[in-house]
Specification:
There is one protein chain. The protein is of the alpha+beta class and 207 residues long. It has a domain at 20-120 and 167-205: Pnp Oxidase, Chain A, CATH 2.30.110.10. The protein contains five helices and ten strands. The protein has helices at residues 20-32, 77-85, 112-121, 124-132, 142-155, and strands at 41-47, 53-59, 62-64, 67-73, 87-94, 99-109, 166-171, 175-180, 188-194, 200-205. Strands 1, 2, 3, 4, 5, 6, 7, 8, 9 and 10 form a ten-stranded antiparallel β-sheet that branches. Strand 9 (188-194) and strand 10 (200-205) form a beta hairpin. The chain is globular. Bound molecules: flavin mononucleotide.
Amino acid sequence: MDGIDFEPLNMDFDRPPACPVSEFRRWFAEAARLPLPNPNAMSLATVDSDGTPSVRTVLLKGLDESGAVFYTNSQSRKGIALLSTQRAGLLFFWDALGRQIHIEGRVHQVSDVASDEYWSTRPRASQIGAWASQQSRVVASREELEQSVAQVERRFPNSVPRPPHWLGFCVELGLIEFWQGHPFRLHDRVVYRRNQQREWVCTRLCP
Ligand SMILES: Cc1cc2nc3c(=O)[nH]c(=O)nc-3n(C[C@H](O)[C@H](O)[C@H](O)COP(=O)(O)O)c2cc1C
């Protein structure tokens, strides 16, 4: 493929692997080799309690059998939507690989221990920003935001505790779809869902 200095390993869509989590890891590892600043960027779709959909980018910070984790402000628009509907969609699109991964599922909050652990890896300036910004609320000017940062700096001269509203959400893997683009719209798609025994059931879909 153009501009890629390695040969991506193609998935066999007629005999898809049993475990979508390992396949996700493989695709993600290949995306991480692309010259992209944020190969872990994903679109997060939520629905407000009145049914209005909205979407924005967040960064994937972990994926395993329990789901895909990102961190945010639970009082933001997305946070309120997630707490109210407990459902979300995620989308990765790696253009250079002609690949898309789509996830849908129920959402739960990660443990405080996990949120604390990730918080402790954040640079101080990001921690200050998380307190200073009332994410999704109206702010009059850049100056107001900077004043809020200065206030938080004074409040926490040493270590910065995690705000109670800043936490990780995990989108469970209710559905995970792999899409590989091909010329003339004859793309490959497989979707994995769990059955009642929580085993993965894989289905091929028309593009
Ligand atoms: C590349 C990129 C990565 C981002 N990562 C995050 C993130 O991990 N968490 C987050 O809360 N916002 C992140 N944002 C900002 C969100 O896209 C969004 O603007 C913000 O969370 C407010 O969304 P909301 O008002 O819909 O709740 C990111 C934006 C970009 C462009």
